[in-house]
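ok new one. same drill as before - structure tokens go in, u give me an amino acid for every spot. 212 of them this time. try not to just spam alanines like last time pls lmao
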């Protein structure tokens, strides 16, 4: 099936993901799975499901929802990425996200400090691309999360459309550290406040020193 086959279901999938995320059954494993899922669809660069579209879908449910998800779920869970694949896919997705023009708007600029801080650590331990990491099946992870909740099964079964990540979609990003630096330099050129914001994060000082 083509990657685009997910498109008719994507709104429903997002709704299901959000329900679970805000529900009482919210678990760390689920929040992590959410980050991996969002990262995967970002990195896959599915036609007609560009990053801006993903953001627009979330924000159509509730204004600024994506920004809230970023600060409340995605950024805090980056340190919990466990396998090499999870680390790589999350790193690549966040770097792609940071390269988007809308990330330079005030509401998103606020997230640069905490996001870059997590990314510096994540990129450091994400290692070099290796073919052995390409076996992770996203849908397997998502299924196991909801084995106890039949109501979600049908929604999640749609995920199999985008499930198998083979070959590893992150392999073409061979130097994440350079990509991260570049995305900061690029952002700073377009909006000087990026530098200002990052300079306010003490823990980032050693990393920022390597930029110039
Ligand atoms: C930085 O900007 C250059 C020039 O626009 C672009 O080619 C490059 O892909 C950007 N880097 C990242 C990591 O987004």
């Amino acid at each position: 099936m083509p990657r685009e086959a997910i498109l008719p279901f994507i709104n429903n999938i997002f709704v299901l993901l959000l329900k679970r995320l805000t529900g009482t059954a919210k678990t760390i494993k689920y929040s992590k799975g959410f980050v991996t899922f969002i990262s995967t669809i970002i990195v896959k660069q599915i036609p007609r499901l560009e990053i801006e579209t993903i953001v627009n879908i979330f924000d159509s449910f509730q204004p600024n929802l994506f920004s809230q998800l970023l600060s409340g779920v995605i950024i805090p869970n980056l340190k919990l990425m466990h396998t090499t694949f999870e680390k790589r896919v999350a790193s690549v997705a966040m770097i792609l996200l940071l390269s988007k023009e809308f990330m330079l708007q005030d509401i998103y600029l606020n997230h640069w400090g905490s996001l870059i801080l997590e990314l510096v650590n994540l990129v450091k331990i994400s290692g070099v691309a290796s073919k052995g990491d390409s076996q992770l099946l996203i849908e397997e992870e998502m299924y196991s999360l909801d084995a106890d909740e039949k109501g979600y099964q049908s929604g999640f079964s749609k995920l199999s459309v985008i499930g198998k990540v083979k070959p590893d979609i992150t392999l073409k990003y061979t130097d994440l550290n350079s990509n991260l630096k570049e995305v900061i330099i690029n952002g700073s050129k377009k909006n000087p406040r990026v530098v200002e914001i990052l300079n306010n994060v003490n823990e980032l000082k050693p990393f920022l020193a390597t930029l110039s």
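The pocket of 2-acetamido-2-deoxy-beta-D-glucopyranose is lined by residues 99, 179, 182-183, 186 (CB under 6 Å). and btw The CA atoms of residues 56 and 106 lie 17 Å apart.
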